[in-house]
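Data availability (excerpt). The following record was deposited with the supplementary files.
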Amino acid sequence: MQAQAENRFDLLVVGGGINGAAIARDAAGRGLSVLLVEQDDLAAHTSSASSKLIHGGLRYLEQYEFSLVAKALAERDVVLNSAPHIVRPLRFVLPHEPHLRPEWMIRAGLLLYDHLGRRRAHTLLRSRRADLREHVAGKPLKAQFETGFIYSDAWCDDARLVVLNALDAQARGAEILTRTRCVRAQRGEQGWRAQLRQNDSASRHIEARALVNAAGPWATSFLDKVAHVPHAHSLRLVKGSHIVVPRLYEHHYAYTFQQADRRIVFAIPFERGYTLIGTTDIEFTGTPEAVRIDADEIAYLCAAANRYFAHAIAPADVVWSYSGVRPLLEEEGVTASEVTRDYLLDFDGGAGAPLLNVFGGKITTHRRLAEDALDRLAPALGNTHGAWTADERVHLPGGEFADTQHSSEEAFDRFLLATMRRYPWLPADLAQRYVRAYGTRVERVVGAANTLADLGERFGADLHQAEADYLVREEWACSADDVLWRRSKLGLRFDVKEQQRLEKYLEGSPQ
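Predicted structure:
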């Protein structure tokens, strides 16, 4: 009977991207029993391939998506408060080009952007005009750019945001299974029966009162091939690619570059020594798991940067690139860059057990999406627990040092200083990286160590055995890619031999 009870859940969530993890978290926090399954690693695909921004989407104002922008900006404040270690404010510089948009239009747009969705007056600085001939952000730019506009948004470690949602879901009672595929889902009047298969071919049969399809680019494929449920919506797959080059400037501002095709390309400080440039928007018709950047995209992004920066870059300067497929709702006659980034929650409760399909969305609105999803699902499951994740007292794991009296930057700086005093033997750069990645959970990484040597073998860069062990033990990491590219970006500083040594170590670690 015990084994049978362990295989019964209120909710089965298929998909371990940001939406699936956030839904599992919200549901577990409302007292529902939850099982989340992900066929690969958490955030293995789209949710680790974003521009790393928590933003309203300034360009969507031109498409009159005021509701989407307002919703995203309100969420920006919530996420800044809930995870101040992995989310931080970022000031953007928009060089002015009169032939693309008149100055009055940019001023009006930024004024609207400043006020839509604002929750706390001190959260972010307001926009302003800047003389780029004198401002530090004008120095890397070509001399023709004399005027610019500076506005605020936020940067985030997207893959870690997924992991933190999964950690919080687990802490609230959810079961999280990675490397586990849902190969069959059969709908009944009272619930769903599902067959799960782990990568080692072991199978498990479970029952759930309701199912959430949060499979991202695979959402319609899951309905067609696994659940065998008809659907009225189609997804449009759009590939977005980014490149990383050695740092193009020393300051901490990011740039918003307007292109002649009316697209926006960002240049963002990245990982202590690099600049991230992206993104593209290209129709994608292949299989989502085979997505790769192509030479034309690299050339496009280099050219986009070269229109503005005095120091030109070429494809040979690219040290890393990544691509992801965005699952957007199909809209006839609309270009890839103009397709809405808003989400649709398709709730089907009339033909048997409840089914909720998640179509579209963006990382910024993940918490709101999850709240909307549970507001629809919970009543069907007899659950009366209200929404809870927007409460300023609620934080993602590691973000508990946040408070309502200080901005997220001030709270982070105070906690970093306290951590350096607690572990004076930690090099300053390593202490900052630990706090930025793990927040208050840094003590779980450091453990009982009293010296740097106590952290164990150094595999490369500043990755020590203690951190690798923590990621395997508590964050579902299994491979070198999990550790180096999703739980961190230390892969930028690892050579092939160091990666192989780490992989060999992880193969011997208890999973």
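Summary of structural features: The chain has a mean pLDDT of 93.
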